[in-house]
Amino acid sequence: MLVMMDETRTPTHWAQRNHPSPMAFRGAAPDRISVALINNMPDAALEDTEAQFFELLNSAAGDIPVSLTLYSLPGIPRGDRGNDHLNRFYVDIADLLNNRFDGVIVTGTEPRQPDLRKEPYWGILAEVLQWAEHNTHSTLLSCLAAHAGVLHSDGIERHPLGDKKFGIFSESKVSDHPLTSRTSDQLKFPHSRWNEIRESDLTSSGYTVLTKSEKAGVNLFVKAKRESLFVHFQGHPEYEAGTLMKEYRRDVKRFLRQERPTYPSLPYGYFDEAATKLLNEFQETALAHRNEQLIAAFPEGLVPNPSESAWHASATRVYYNWLQWLVARQADSAAPTQNARLGRG
Question: Which of the residues 47, 137, 143, 312 is marked catalytic?
């Protein structure tokens, strides 16, 4: 197990599975890669998102020791359980802004405003993005955070979609880059979003698109900003096998509670024929008898979770390449100091 956390800040679900070694301090250190995870997901997905990123980083780390510190942006609506979890296991965002990290990962959250600049956390998110340009070797932005990142730095607006981009989509590798080294030319990744960033807007602002899909558009794209390589995913390589099922059930429940006007589409490329038949039959019942209590009959237990192997190898390789990038940049930044100590150049 190479992903480590401060033992006093290790969420219970991770400690029980991995027994991480205690760390004496946070931040950069020459013997490991330091990564900050800024988890902004709503309370219902907070711990699941932790687990997803822990597992992905642990799978990708190989022989790279990684220290991980948890943060979350203030301004995200929280209930008592969420706030208690943050108080027990997360570090105040002021700590992040007073430190350097080799890498930072920023998750998205569920948007409440069409204009992200009107979200209550926008000010502190902009401050974090500005900090990251000067205090990390690379910044990885997931889904809504990717949209916020390009809006903040380049004024690129996202565009609403007619329906949710939801499912497992095949993508082509369209540019050579260290992040996609030794990946196949065709990759698959999960997506779950109501908006998109368009390729033409990205390329005209100096971004390099690395993967894209005919059905889902751009996924992975990069741009160097000051001292940091900004890595953007419109999709979710961190998702586990059952994540899209959980989201689909949540959206069905919202329909039954009349919190959304339309019944959600099935996630693309996710369920087999038998599962699709069961879920379509439930949809017919739900449309005819729209009632919140009907969610108890949702056939989740009868539908096996698809294997995450469809995208796990691609996700692990890209994250491994990202960690290797951090290792190389850490070594580059240490070299001048070492030379100075030796009286060289």
Answer: 143
Please give the backbone phi and psi of residue 33, each rounded to the nearest 5 degrees, phi first.
-95, 130
Active site residue 159: no
Q: pLDDT digits over 240-282, tens only?
A: 999 999 999 999 999 999 999 999 999 999 999 999 999 999 9
CATH number at residue 195: 3.40.50.880
Is 57 contained in some domain? yes
Q: What number is the average pLDDT over the span 180-200? A: 96
Cβ–Cβ < 8 Å for 5, 68: yes
Q: How many domains does the structure of the chain reveal?
A: 2
261 & 170 share domain: no
pLDDT tens digit sequence for 287-310: 999 999 999 999 988 888 777 778
Q: Among 47, 171, 196, 238, which one carries the catalytic annotation?
A: 238
Structure confidence at residue 18 (pLDDT): 64
Q: Tokens at residue 71, please?
A: 């943060």
Same domain, yes or no: 94 and 215: yes
Domain that holds residue 218: 3-239+311-330
* Residues ≥6 apart with Cβ < 8 Å to 113: 119
Give the C-alpha separation, 130 to 339, whole Å: 30
Both 61 and 186 in a single domain? yes
pTM value is: 0.92
Q: Could you confirm whether 236 is annotated as catalytic? A: yes
Residues 68 and 126 in one domain: yes
